[in-house]
Amino acid sequence: MRTALYPGTFDPLTLGHIDIIRRASMLVDRLVIGVAINRDKGPMFTLEERVAMIEAECTKLSEQTGTEIVAHPFENLLINCAHDVGAQIIVRGLRAVADFEYEFQMVGMNRVLDSSVETVFLMAEARHQAIASKLVKEIARLGGDVSKFVTPQVNEALLERLSL
Q1: Domain layout of the chain by residue ranges
Q2: Catalytic residue (one of 83, 95, 111, 161)
């Protein structure tokens, strides 16, 4: 069984994330969405809320693609998380050239830690390249409409969280 790990904080889950999840799920038998517990980032949504968002959206994708898609919280090294879930592949999404520098360093470090785990990059669809969770939260916090960047359920959760 070919298993991939797509890690991130997903705070919140965006249409860009969903695009990468959909496309990655067509390449593997099982896709694990690694939901990072990153206390330094101070997420807007709790770990439980982020996992619930992913599970709600990925149930539909799993049915469409026939690929098992599961959410898995993690707080350890990415390469250790890959081992924990039995992933041979780490999936990373790229939006722009700026993403590449950081990702290039991460791949190098992960290859030193375990060269048997391969990293695969998927370019975001053109219409999703500008979407970043950080920007979505900022737009929503300032009263802007983020419905073009997130699903209706995530949009509702954002509005609720911000009491708008």
Answers
A1: 3-126
A2: 95
Judge whether 17 counts as a catalytic residue. yes
The single residue of 17, 30, 50, 128 carrying the catalytic annotation is 17
- Name the strand (E) or helix (H) holding 88: none
Confidence band of 88 (pLDDT split at 50, 70, 90): very high
Q: In which band, very low, low, confident or very high, does the pLDDT at 164 lie, cut at 50, 70 and 90?
A: low
Statement: residue 8 has pLDDT above 90: yes
CA 74 to CA 47: how far, in whole Å? 10
State the catalytic residue, choosing from 2, 41, 127, 148.
41
Fold for the domain defined by 3-126: Rossmann fold (3.40.50)
**C-alpha distances in angstroms, 91 versus 22, 44, 107, 147?**
12, 24, 11, 26
Would you state the pLDDT for residue 9?
Answer: 95
* 41 among known catalytic residues: yes
